Amino acid sequence: MRVQVLTIFPELFAPFLATSLVGRAIEKGILEVRVHDLRDFTEDRHRSVDDEPYGGGGGMVMTAPPWIRAVRAVSEGTEGTNPWRVLLSPQGARLDDAKVRELAGRGDLLLMCGRYEGIDERVRLTVVDEEVSIGDYVLSGGELPAMVLIEAMSRQVPGVVQQADSVAQDSFRSGLLDYPHYTRPPVVEGMAVPEVLLSGDHAAIRRWHEQEALKATREKRPDLLEKS
Ligand code: 4GX
Fold it and tell me: Is 130 helix (H, G, I), strand (E, B) or coil?
């Protein structure tokens, strides 16, 4: 899978891309992430990317020309493939497990990270394929949403997650929340590990996992049960 990113803060991505699962996937060559600085596509001395909004209203808006130049340059500069162009914004459709899989399946993506009050509408109308939001709250930029998306998608790329089981049995695959987990020590604050987990009875343990997943979903996210 290849992901390209357009941002005015490329340095935000360096530690993220060097660490843990995503870092290892890049090392192994099963994930490629290229981060581009939007300012490299400006043409003025000050490399400016924003201006005052027409109609007033306060704040600043990212101007269209650097975005349009950048998207075209980056799209055409990728060996003829044209990446699916995703704008991270609160106006997008809410990201969920199905959308993560769908986007991961596209294999070649360009993530567009805006700042300020947003981006000139003509960018969306000309060079954006899809708008995606990671949730109904306001951030200062699309960089964290892009990292959320990269991390979630990378888990769906074969070979990225070590234990194949942990993806197949992932919470949400089943439409349910995960069951509770326990590890050593056997007693914590007077609370023992549920006995069945120590029984060695694999069928009983599987039944317990299913029951607990259902119970957790009913108690914490009943809306998920309605869906599934
Ligand atoms: N899920 N933000 C983007 C600036 C912006 C606004 C409109 C493009 C269009 C967010 C979210 C989010 C704040 C990132 C505003 N860029 N993005 N930014 N929630 O809140 O994705």
Answer: strand
pLDDT digits (tens, 9 = 90+) for 37-86: 999 999 999 999 999 999 999 999 999 999 999 999 999 876 778 999 99
Q: Are strands 50-51 and 61-62 parallel, antiparallel or unpaired?
A: antiparallel
Phi and psi at 144, nearest 5°, equal -65, -45
Q: Examine the pLDDT at 166 and tell me if it is beyond 80.
A: no
Q: Which two tokens stand for residue 102?
A: 């769908």
143-154 helix and 97-106 helix, angle to the nearest 10 degrees:
80
Among the listed residues 137, 153, 25, the one whose alpha carbon sits nearest the alpha carbon of residue 84 = 153
Give the tokens for residue 125. 């109308």
Pocket of ligand 1 (CB under 6 A): 87-90, 114-115, 118-119, 133-135, 137-139, 141-142, 145
- Min mean pLDDT across 130-134, 136-140, 159-163 is at 159-163
| Catalytic machinery residues | 90, 117, 155, 170
**How many C-alpha atoms does 97 have within 13 Å on its Cβ side?**
12
**pLDDT for 203-218, tens place per residue?**
999 999 999 999 999 9
Centre of ligand 1 from the C-alpha of residue 88, in Å: 6
